[in-house]
């Protein structure tokens, strides 16, 4: 079952389209959630990469924003809470050793 970013049924070519109204709604919800999760995951990775590439230049504000995004991602279910804790610990250790 391949999902397409188009929500209009006429634009699907070679894709299985749901028939019931509830399945159509679930597909619309899944598409919206996937886009939202993709944006949040990208922002999280970018912020973490900023801290990792320049730990002493990133400063406390970048580190705090990365920790905040990790906590939010764990709370929203984007990543597991232990993965967020592990990421915070690694970033904190990196910033502490470089500064």
Question: What's the short story on this structure?
Answer:
With 99 residues, the chain is mainly α. The chain contains 3 helices and no strands.
**Beta fraction:** under 5%
**Cα-based radius of gyration, to the nearest Å:** 19 Å
- Total DSSP helices: 3
Largest sheet: none
Oligomer: single chain
N-to-C span: 49 Å
Number of strand segments: 0
Q: What keyword list fits this structure?
A:
99 residues; mainly alpha; 74% helix
Provide a descriptive summary of the structure in words:
With 99 residues, the protein is an all-alpha fold. It is built from three helices and no strands. It has helices at 21-53, 55-76, 81-98. The protein is elongated, with a radius of gyration of 19 Å. The N and C termini lie far apart (49 Å). The model has no long low-confidence stretch (mean pLDDT 86).
Topology record:
Elements: H1 21-53, H2 55-76, H3 81-98
Helix pairs in contact: 1-2, 2-3
């Amino acid at each position: 079952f391949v999902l397409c970013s188009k929500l209009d049924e006429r634009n699907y070519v070679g894709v299985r389209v749901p028939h019931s109204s509830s399945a159509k709604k679930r597909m619309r919800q899944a598409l919206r959630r996937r886009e939202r999760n993709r944006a949040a995951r990208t922002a999280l990775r970018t912020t973490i990469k900023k801290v990792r590439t320049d730990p002493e230049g990133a400063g406390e504000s970048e580190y705090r924003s990365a920790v905040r995004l990790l906590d939010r991602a764990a709370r929203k279910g984007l990543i597991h809470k232990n993965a967020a804790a592990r990421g915070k610990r690694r970033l904190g250790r990196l910033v502490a050793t470089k500064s």
